[in-house]
Amino acid sequence: MRVSVIGCGHLGASHAAAMAELGHEVIGVEIDPGKCDILNTGKSWFYEAGLDALLARHVPTGRLRFTTDPAEAAALADLHFIATGTPLREDGRGYDASQVISAVETLVPLIDRPATIVGKSTVTVGTVATLQNVITAGARVGVELVWNPEFLREGHAVQDSLFPDRILVGLTSPTARAAIEEVYAPIMARGDIEMVVTDPQTAEVAKAAANSFLAAKISYINAVAEICDLTGANVDDVAHVMGIDKRIGHAGMRPGLGYGGGCLPKDVAAFAYAAEEMGAAAAAGLLDAVQAVNRSRQHAAAALITAALHGELHGRTIAFLGGAFKAGTSDVRDSPALRLADLLYQLGATVRLFDPEALHNARRTHPHLAFADSALDAAHEADLVVVATEWPAFVTDPKLPADAAERVKNRTVVDVRNALDAGPWLATGWTVHQLGRPTRTPDA
Ligand SMILES: NC(=O)c1ccc[n+]([C@@H]2O[C@H](COP(=O)([O-])OP(=O)(O)OC[C@H]3O[C@@H](n4cnc5c(N)ncnc54)[C@H](O)[C@@H]3O)[C@@H](O)[C@H]2O)c1
């Protein structure tokens, strides 16, 4: 099938590459010429595991190309995915849907044969109805609209696009359904996933509800971590016991700094705002509590770090490992790691940060911090090591604690993701602090 993907950011570039991998001829439209140029070299403008390999495979053959001109997409494709951004409005009152609306407004009059527009961006309920009006007003031919929210996880975007858990489509006509079944036929042919077909408003709410539930699960275990800190209980054991229950499950149950990134924070905020606006007071209250717990985590982490430094942050140097909002991506949008780094800086510490993929972005957004070119450079003469993003190089590499031990002033590591394999650290003389569980010392 010939398809376009409008908006080649974290979602769109990954989706375009995955569509090419499935055998479609793909044109990506990206309004930013710099990003478009990089993608046309067969590389991504951001780090996402596995993405460069797909771009390198499909851009040189011409099966996948990128342009800034939506007219080229209209000329080539019969199905157009919309993957533009939906950031939170500056006043926090729901999404700014202008990128999505303007992409559709621009594309629709350019289409001169029957086509399907498939929205993948995360939107508030009612946006599909607005876009349907845009299409009705501007279309010269039959243009169908489908809402197909995306559930991929950053850091696993390629894998999740090729092997999704489910495909959700909100639509209203058999023609739209036929188009969506054709584009996803290579995935559905495997026979192991469900395509859930609903009306558009159900698709809109299902995406918001799923992301908010995930955020609630994270905030729940973080709230339990707070109780563990006050009682001496071990939150990792508590989470394990809880997760054995199939109704609860282990996924998303690791306590730490809370959720971040380009999706969950804005999606929970927008859902909470929408709930409040429509008078769903219980839902709004629940979602507000989820956000309040999340906001509190950086303070819990800063308190743990301060305690590990015997109450004194001022004038101390912290080797700060991690800037990306999670491992597997260079994305620093709403990064809990950077929020914590910033707080420690405000409290008077020198924060020397290293991240294997997000250093460039962290430097751009937080130029006041200090930066290092490796984890060991960050550790040089530091008073303490903080592990703030769960990159394997930080949490499972047994060489890091041994090598860093020779550099630091104090062998003290604070793991604010509860992801560290503590054994090699303890074995090389480190004291290990984690949120919601008792401190471990090498001789204990
Ligand atoms: N990032 C994720 O993992 C993810 C997962 C699921 C859903 N989503 C949703 O997908 C949407 C996109 O998220 P993202 O993280 O990719 O955002 P992003 O900001 O990384 O990407 C959006 C891209 O669209 C481009 N753009 C804006 N207007 C355009 C236009 N008119 N024509 C062409 N390009 C245009 C921007 O330059 C940018 O590169 C959001 O609604 C988000 O909530 C994202």
As laid out across the biggest beta sheet, the strand order is 11-10-9-12-13-14-15
What does the overall shape look like? globular
Radius of gyration, in Å, reads 23 Å
Low-confidence regions:
none
Taking the alpha carbons of the first and last residues, their distance comes to 62 Å
The top level CATH class name of the largest domain: Alpha Beta
Task: Report strand %.
Answer: 5-15%
For the secondary structure, the number of strands is 15
Provide the domain count.
3
Report the average pLDDT across residues: 97
**What CATH architecture label of the largest domain applies?**
3-Layer(aba) Sandwich
Main sheet: strands, sense, barrel: 7 strands, mixed
User: Could you say which structural class the secondary elements and strand pairing correspond to?
Assistant: alpha/beta
CATH superfamily of the largest domain: NAD(P)-binding Rossmann-like Domain
Bound molecules: nicotinamide-adenine-dinucleotide
According to CATH, what is the topology of the largest domain? Answer: Rossmann fold
> Count of helices?
19
Name the helicity range: 40-55%
